[in-house]
Amino acid sequence: xxxxxxxxxxxxxxxxxxxxxxxxxxxxxxxxxxxxxxxxxxxxxxxxxxxxxxxxxxxxxxxxxxxxxxxxxxxxxxxxxxxxxxxxxxxxxxxxxxxxxxxxxxxxxxxxxxxxxxxxxxxxxxxxxxxxxxxxxxxxxxxxxxxxxxxxxxxxxxxxxxxxxxxxxxxxxxxxxxxxxxxxxxxxxxxxxxxxxxxxxxxxxxxxxxxxxxxxxxxxxxxxxxxxxxxxxxxxxxxxxxxxxxxxxxxxxxxxxxxxxxxxxxxxxxxxxxxxxxxxxxxxxxxxxxxxxxxxxxxxxxxxxxxxxxxxxxxxxxxxxxxxxxxxxxxxxxxxxxxxxxxxxxxxxxxxxxxxxxxxxxxxxxxxxxxxxxxxxxxxxxxxxxxxxxxxxxxxxxxxxxxxxxxxxxxxxxxxxxxxxxxxxxxxxxxxxxxxxxxxxxxxxxxxxxxxxxxxxxxxxxxxxxxxxxxxxxxxxxxxxxxxxxxxxx
Length: 490
Ligand SMILES: Cc1cc2nc3c(=O)[nH]c(=O)nc-3n(C[C@H](O)[C@H](O)[C@H](O)COP(=O)(O)OP(=O)(O)OC[C@H]3O[C@@H](n4cnc5c(N)ncnc54)[C@H](O)[C@@H]3O)c2cc1C
Prior knowledge:
Distance between the termini: 71 Å
Number of helices: 14
GO cellular component, one term: peroxisome
Structural class: alpha/beta
Domain Amine oxidase: 37-457
Binding site for FAD: 246
GO molecular function: polyamine oxidase activity
Bound molecules: flavin-adenine dinucleotide
Protein name: Amine oxidase domain-containing protein
């Protein structure tokens, strides 16, 4: 027997991993790589459909880019914190509703540009002067007009360009849209907010595709108690191996063999790869045989941006009672903003959120220096600010387990690349925020791709096992009765 044939037989004969629990040995098996929300959603669905499931997670915790920290004595999210689309159509709504988790709605708008209502902002210049609210609103209207002009440019040019370039062209065509003085700075702040949404600078965001993402109705709501309960619920009862960094995925017609950093191997009928796009780009995981060219192209070409959080915990509140504090400046790079968590949670916490190049630059600093940097920005606008008593700093760009915060539409890269990233290759299924055509870069997008991967995997493996009615459908018919979401605003 040649060695190839022998290893295939081994795969076929050994569908179970070392400690697969009480599941029957004859049931199909799957290895889920990555214990973020996408991987856990896939694992949960397949486990509930009678598969033997093992989740291999490189970190010493689950949740991935959903990371609720409790070291302040209350929950704060270092990764995702909003549910974008507070409505029953949101794939996560049934779960969040059933858990009774409260949401604090920061905006009723479905726009990617306004996850905060304008009236909840307080913007300041670098000298601590508050920008009059009517000017903030007026500049917001100008920003909308500029975007309309960029839309015309988009219709005229077949080649893609960056949103930054299109804005410059819009100014050339419509000099009346140019602003100066403080109004210019406010405009830069709007641009800075847009860059925050994509976690990328305006000169790398695609004009053609930036608004292709499907936005659910219901606006944007903060998870007041953090996202962790959602993760814990999905993970309950699953066989999850922490500190298991996958380095190789071998696929054969009858199974997969997955190797982790210390050389241990796991075999199963199929695998769901739910690691971040940044990790796939880095080639940390070797696929054998190599993934097809179209898949590698999608991995290489999709953009991954950076957004971080510097969370400052104060003794008590000294800032105005608004949801968002903004610093306006000459360029979007110098602008910044703080989310006031006190409004939603009652805790004296401000969250500084740099994105794009600024986030990249701040990630080079020590945590102490990063926290000082954020605090200095705050002192510019509120000179009487008191020193924080604690801080937390995220490093999503350099953390080897993420290598970026979330995907975005880079210039010249078709939106369909998200779908290409999702499409299975033989018995390898792909999930994660960057595989979501409709809701990339989001928790609910990642979650729904996990369910999709599970369903695709179930169908494929059933082709082999041929026992269609043995398993529950992964999604659809049996979905739980929706419980209304708890939404507040103070
Ligand atoms: C700062 C920040 C703010 C955000 N804000 C929001 C928000 O408010 N609302 C929203 O909807 N979305 C937000 N997002 C995006 C959201 O967090 C992500 O889209 C989503 O959590 C991604 O889930 P995932 O399962 O695709 O990936 P991940 O959560 O990254 O999961 C992938 C898992 O794979 C593991 N892994 C990596 N390499 C390996 C390996 N070699 N072997 C095994 N395991 C490996 C990782 O440790 C991780 O646990 C934010 C993200 C960031 C970073």
